[in-house]
């Protein structure tokens, strides 16, 4: 299907634009920007407030009802552990006294994304750099919020159940997003930095032709990885980022699903519809995979391990579960187990990563949290 996106006037419309801006003048709301939360404070097992750094000052806000933590799947477990809510052994290593011994940070599920293979198009149906840099595109975007600059990165989306999908679960294992451009498009290196792609790899892979020639990239997202990662403290200093261990491809079946997605892409390129627009595989050896026979399973395996990056969908680090579920951090009302006056409401509570991009589900979590809080649940 065609991808759906939250956009307005050709721009992405964030939750800050949609929810916060319209509410920011309410008398019962204070928003502090450039502010770093360092700790949730407890009196025994009851959360009493939040300490944060604002500019050069350290401040504390006391709560009369409860603290609602929404710092995301990296930030929420980080703040909880700094505050004494986390695995006791781990906290003890950093001399943090334990308020509640919970598996915080331990169920990191992500969507690794393979940006491979790429296909040339005979017809000019994709977005090229020349098109984007034209006066016409600039006028279309600035006056009407339309044209190639307003184009969202991923044009088409679909889900697949490959041969490697777990038959017991019955879920699709791959989401395909077709990108009507190539990575060589990124002249400012924004995407390279965001994806953490190695400069030497980029140079060796020779993306220069992407700037002028129509290209389509097959982006395959692994929807339900068996490999599970973890967020850990590096120190007890709140300004030290936590350690993020995504643990990609710990389980070989994750690689197999992505290898199958490449094989499906080659079949897809052979269909009548794609042949009609002159789709042809870009026959460029992936740097580092030269030793394998081209198009063999070992070669595809190497390509998967080389051209995969994060899609930025971390979830599960403050997993929701039943009150007696020892792997859960929050209960079904999103209340942190074993303490009072503290909830988590963000992507970190997802017990199982969703078969889709994560933003809409996170908004649903927040809407549900708001309903539960208002109804006193
Ligand atoms: C580059 C990128 C592209 C994406 N594209 C898509 C997409 O196309 N579609 C889609 O569905 N999803 C997309 N996502 C994923 C989506 O943005 C996330 O699933 C969603 O934002 C998660 O919401 P959240 O509230 O859990 O966390 P976040 O949106 O990360 O919000 C957490 C907030 O807490 C703040 N914070 C963290 N720690 C602290 C602290 N100590 N003190 C103060 N503040 C703190 C952070 O600055 C942040 O503002 C994308 C993500 C990224 C990064």
UniProtKB/TrEMBL annotation:
Domain Glucose-methanol-choline oxidoreductase N-terminal: start-end pairs: 72-86
SUPFAM superfamilies: FAD-linked reductases, C-terminal domain, FAD/NAD(P)-binding domain
Residue stretches in coiled coil: none
Listed cofactors: FAD
Keyword entries, A-Z: FAD, Flavoprotein
Family stated for the protein in its record: Belongs to the GMC oxidoreductase family.
Protein name: Glucose dehydrogenase [FAD, quinone]-like
Source species of the chain: Priapulus caudatus
């Amino acid at each position: 299907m065609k991808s759906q996106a939250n956009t307005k006037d050709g721009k992405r419309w964030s939750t800050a634009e949609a929810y916060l801006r319209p509410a920011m003048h309410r008398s019962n709301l204070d928003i502090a920007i450039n502010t770093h939360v360092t700790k949730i404070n407890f009196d025994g097992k009851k959360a009493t407030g939040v300490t944060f750094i604002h500019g050069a000052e350290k401040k504390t806000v006391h709560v009369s009802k409860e603290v609602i933590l929404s710092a995301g799947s990296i930030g929420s477990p980080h703040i909880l552990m700094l505050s004494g809510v986390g695995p006791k052994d781990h906290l003890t290593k950093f001399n943090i006294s334990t308020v509640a011994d919970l598996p915080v940070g331990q169920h990191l599920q992500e969507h690794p994304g393979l940006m491979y293979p790429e296909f040339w198009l005979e017809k000019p149906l994709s977005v090229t750099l020349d098109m984007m840099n034209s006066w016409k595109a600039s006028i279309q975007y600035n006056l009407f919020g339309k044209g190639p600059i307003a184009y969202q990165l991923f044009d088409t989306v679909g889900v697949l159940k490959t041969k490697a999908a777990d038959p017991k679960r019955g879920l699709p294992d791959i989401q395909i997003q077709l990108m009507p451009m190539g990575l060589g498009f990124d002249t400012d290196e924004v995407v390279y930095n965001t994806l953490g792609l190695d400069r030497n790899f980029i140079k060796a892979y020779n993306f220069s032709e992407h700037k002028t020639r129509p290209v389509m990239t097959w982006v395959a997202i692994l929807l339900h990885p068996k490999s599970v990662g973890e967020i850990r403290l590096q120190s007890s200093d709140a300004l030290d980022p936590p350690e993020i261990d995504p643990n990609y491809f710990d389980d070989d079946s994750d690689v197999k699903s992505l290898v199958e997605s490449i094989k499906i892409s080659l079949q897809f390129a052979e269909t009548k519809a794609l042949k009609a627009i002159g789709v042809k595989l870009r026959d460029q050896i992936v740097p580092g995979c030269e030793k394998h026979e081209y198009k063999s399973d070992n070669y595809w395996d190497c390509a998967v391990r080389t051209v995969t990056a994060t899609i930025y969908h971390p979830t599960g680090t403050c997993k929701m579960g039943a009150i007696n579920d020892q792997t859960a951090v929050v209960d079904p009302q999103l209340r942190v187990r074993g303490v009072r006056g503290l909830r988590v409401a963000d992507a970190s509570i997802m017990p199982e990563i969703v078969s889709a991009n994560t933003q809409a589900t996170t908004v649903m979590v927040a809407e549900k949290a708001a309903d539960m809080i208002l109804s006193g649940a």
